[in-house]
Structures are given as structure tokens and as C-alpha cells.
Amino acid sequence: MAGESARDPSPRGRRGLPEIDPALRAAAAASAGGTLVIWWPAFTLGAYDAVFFDAVLAIWAVATAVLLAPLVLRTRGALPWAGWIALALPSVWIVLAVVAPRSHGFRYLHYFEVVLTLVGAPALTWLLSRILLPEYAELPERYRLRAVAVTIAVGVLAFLLGKFNYLFLTCADFDVSGNNTPPGCANGPPFHLL
After folding, report:
1. Which domain holds residue 156?
2. For residue 105, which of 1, 95, 117, 189 sits 20 to 30 Å off, Cα-Cα?
3. Do 105 and 157 share a domain, yes or no?
4. At what angle do helices 22-48 and 141-163 cross, to 10 degrees?
5. Torsion of CA 69, 56, 86, 120, to 10 degrees
6. Is the same domain home to 156 and 181?
7. What is the helix (H) or strand (E) element at residue 118, kind and residue range?
8. DSSP classification of residue 146
9. Average pLDDT along the chain
10. If you compute the radius of gyration of the chain from its CA atoms, what whole number of angstroms results?
């Protein structure tokens, strides 16, 4: 029976691979999901002083999918009222943008867009974590808050990387990636591995 653990395919049965703490797994998954949402809008805000529309629309797409899922499945009580409101905010932004276009002097929509993205991303991450990760709801509150704190910290760091992009990127890096060059970028060749 001693050779049985060598044939056990579970993580516990493999040598050198300890079982990952479920609390760590849930907190890390929530943090990773949040940072995937917030890093690009925060970086572009730092580099260009703008949040690009594709980041806002990505948040809209995820929020709308989660908003429509309970409606399509006809489940009652799936989300608290605050969750419905948080998920509807990106759609509210789009309706406002259609009804009051910026070309008619409604520039405040840009600020709403920035707030929606930078505040909405951690809130959406929290809500999605509760829905998609069953282990997340079982975490102690301090772990859940730490996962949100990690998301916010990465957002702040991404903003600073965008603001100080000239320290590690060149204008050519932005050109090669298909982005416009931000003001104040450094001249030089793009980064190449080889």
C-alpha cells in the first residue's frame, strides 16, 4: 500500500506539491480577477490622463452579463438590491452618453466614466467574487477586504506606472503596441527580447 500514494493523482498525493489553502485560493482568485479589470484603465489614466472607452465597455460587458444571468434564469433573490444597482451603473453611463453627448457641452460624463471605472472595478470584482467563487463568501471579512485592497493597490500602482511610463517604456513601445504615444514618453527603440 506504500506505492498507492505515488499513484494518487490528487495534489495531496504528489510529492513536493502541498495542498493550497482554500482561503488563499479564494482571496488570490478575487485579487487576480480584480486586477485584470482595473490595471489597464488605471495605467491609461496615468499615461494619457484618460480612461479609454474599451476599458469602460469591458466593465459594461461583464456587469451586463452578470446582471442578465439571474433574469434569464428567472431566479429570485439572486442578488441584493445594491448588487443590481452596481451592475446597472455601466449601462446608466451608456444611456447618459447617448442622451447627453459630450459634443453638446456635457463634459462631466468623462468624470463619471473615470469614477465608474476606478470605483466600479473593485465593486464589480467584489460582487463577481461573491457570485463566482463559493469559497469567497466563506472567507473571514478581513480576507475579503484584503483581496479588495490588493485590487486597489494594483490599480494605484498601474496608475503610477502609466504616469511614469518614460522610466521603463519608450514612445516606440506604444507605437509598436498600436497605441498612441502619451505626452512625455521617452524616445528610443521598442523593447525586444532578443
Report:
1. 21-163
2. 117
3. yes
4. 30
5. 130
6. no
7. helix 108-132
8. H
9. 79
10. 21
Confidence of residue 5 (pLDDT cuts 50, 70, 90): very low
CA distance 151 to 90: 19
Dist. CA 43–CA 20, nearest whole Å: 32
pTM of the entire predicted model: 0.73
The angle at the Cα of 128, spanning 140 to 72, to the nearest 5 degrees, equals 135
Q: What single letter denotes the amino acid at residue 69?
A: A
> What confidence tens digit (pLDDT) does each residue in 114-154 have?
676 666 666 777 777 777 777 777 888 888 888 888 988 99
H-run or E-run covering 191: none
Predicted local distance difference test score (pLDDT) of residue 154? 92
Q: Are 148 and 122 in contact (CB under 8 A)?
A: yes
- Do 182 and 109 lie in a common domain? no
In a 10 Å sphere around its CB, with 0-12 CB exposed, 13-18 middle and 19+ buried, how is residue 127 labelled?
A: buried
CA distance 128 to 120: 12
